[in-house]
């Protein structure tokens, strides 16, 4: 009976160890030249994974990113230009795959919005500071009647 328990325990231990050691597959792509490799990796860093949405094609482990990485690498080795590869990806997945969207009329708010907000903040800050300076130069004068009332209140509190 004890031998059976030891055998079952050993099998359970071996099974749990084999499932814990599973590794993710690694892409291996042989580029035709080191220049192509540099270009391919650079392009894959610039393109966003459509599935993960917050990682580029190199950092993502999703199957979609793996396929797109290999597609980019193959296109680079085929001699296609960067613009041609980016055009292919945006036509297939939309402008979302670009970390740096193109300067177009539909993306003006993305490019010019931060500058506009900065200018608006500077104008509001300038107006606020100017009002503070103008308001700070006016002496605080009270009427004679208010001064007498204040004096009586102060005398009452000191007694």
Automatic annotation (TrEMBL):
**An MF annotation (GO) of this entry:** lyase activity
List the CDD domains hit by this protein, alphabetically: CcmH_N
Q: Which residues form the signal peptide?
A: 1-22
Q: Give me the segments passing through the membrane.
A: 108-129
CcmH/CycL/Ccl2/NrfF N-terminal domain: residues covered: 12-154
- Transmembrane helix as a keyword of this entry, yes or no, is yes
Q: Does the keyword Secreted apply?
A: no
Q: Name one GO biological process term.
A: cytochrome complex assembly
Keywords, ordered alphabetically: Heme, Iron, Lyase, Membrane, Metal-binding, Signal, Transmembrane, Transmembrane helix
Gene3D superfamilies (alphabetical): Cytochrome C biogenesis protein (1.10.8.640)
Check the record and name the InterPro entries matching this protein.
Answer: C-type_cytochrome_biogenesis (IPR051263), CcmH/CycL/Ccl2/NrfF_N (IPR005616), CcmH/CycL/NrfF/Ccl2_sf (IPR038297), For-dep_Cytc_NO2Rdtase_NrfF (IPR017565)
One GO CC term of this entry?
Answer: plasma membrane
| UniProt function note | Possible subunit of a heme lyase.
Family statement drawn from the similarity comment of this UniProt entry: Belongs to the CcmH/CycL/Ccl2/NrfF family.
Q: This chain belongs to which protein, by name? A: Formate-dependent nitrite reductase complex subunit
Q: Identify the species of origin.
A: Shewanella oncorhynchi
- Organism phylogeny: Bacteria, Pseudomonadati, Pseudomonadota, Gammaproteobacteria, Alteromonadales
